[in-house]
Amino acid sequence: MTIGEKIKIPKIEDYRGNLSVIEKDILPFSFKRVYYLYDVPAGSERGGHAHIEQKAFLIALSGSFEVVLNNAREQEIITLNRPYEGLLIDNGIWRELKNFSSGAVCLVVASDVFSEEDYIRDFDTFKNYDFSGKR
Fold first, then answer.
1. Mean of pLDDT over the chain
2. Is the pLDDT of residue 1 over 60?
3. How far is residue 33's CA from residue 95's CA, in Å, rounded to a whole number?
4. Which of 7, 11, 22, 49 is labelled catalytic?
5. Could you read off the pLDDT of 41-67 as tens digits, one per residue?
6. Eight-state DSSP code of residue 117
7. CB count, 10 Å around CB of 56?
8. Which residues, including other chains, have CB under 8 Å from residue 125's CB and lie 6 or more apart?
9. To which CATH superfamily is domain 5-113+120-127 assigned?
């Protein structure tokens, strides 16, 4: 069983450089927010939370990093290192981002705007949260 799903982003190859596009039919959700992580110091980690409702799609625009996913029953580690491939993370999945390479940029396409109430930031709370009916 996989916790996260890798999705190929269409790549238009050209001798002048490649182009990838994320449009409404690429992701299984409408997106309302786009943000990116960069200049992550060596050894630092990001994430460390789950969302109650929100879904996310992560892309390594540059460099690489690992995404550790946990659904309270099992854990999966996925390496992202291609700008034409992203990782779909459903709600109710704990995520940690680590092992960022120098110059790595992580783009996040999110299904909703920021809401602190949607975050679970304590792993024990996450393990005991009832996500039934939230997917």
1. 94
2. no
3. 18
4. 49
5. 989 999 999 999 999 999 999 999 999
6. G
7. 25
8. none
9. Jelly Rolls (2.60.120.10)
